[in-house]
Amino acid sequence: MKRFIAPIIILILATVGYFVAQELLSYRTASFTFDQSVESISIHSGEDSDEAMPSLKTLTPDDSSIRLKEGAYYYVPSGDGVSNVQIPFVVAGDIALTVKPDYSTDKLGELATTELGAVQGALLQKYPRVIDGFEVNNLALFERGEWAGIILTPVGMDTSNPEGYYRAILHKVNSQWQVVGAPRIVLTIDNTPTVSRELLTSVNELSLR
To answer: Between the CA atoms of 183, 187, 191 and 196, what dihedral angle is there, to the nearest 10 degrees?
Structure first.
């Protein structure tokens, strides 16, 4: 009887060992490098969605890696002036990610106030002969404040009966604002091909003030 029991035990142990090894081998290391504006991130399993999943772990610049099974995850950054949006990532092997989220809506709004003069200066330099007839009705910054979307309206335009106004995009390069493409009634991927579709949509959705 003992002769039959020993092989069975060995088989069971080998099977268990195999599955344990497979489980351990399915885990990968995800390492994160933090932008100085980010204080921490919470790691969540699954696709990013409106329904938040429980946090698996909170990482900080001093504890910035985690072992995860292969699959889909997202993280939520926290910090002064950063956007707390869900940022998806996929683990298919060991990965290294940089955490540099967009600025929050509040911070972008504050920056827009301080950048208005510089944006107007860039427009004047680009269109010195015609810009005097227009004014910046609305200005919004995007991402980390390096992209600007504006609405240009004729000076004195009645906003209750608007006509003849344009939208434009500027990009801040080496601390200088540059007009991208030309002002348009509607910005499209055809007339402004160097700008992402997402940003074009956001600027087209700006409202008159």
So the answer is: 120
- The number of residues making up the chain comes to 209
Contact between 183 and 132 (Cβ < 8 Å): no
pLDDT surpasses 50 at 65: yes
Domain with CATH 2.60.40.1120 in the chain: 28-99
pLDDT at 206 over 70: yes
- Domain 28-99: top CATH class: mainly beta
Half-sphere exposure of 93 (CA within 13 A, CB side): 0
Q: What pLDDT sits at residue 12?
A: 52
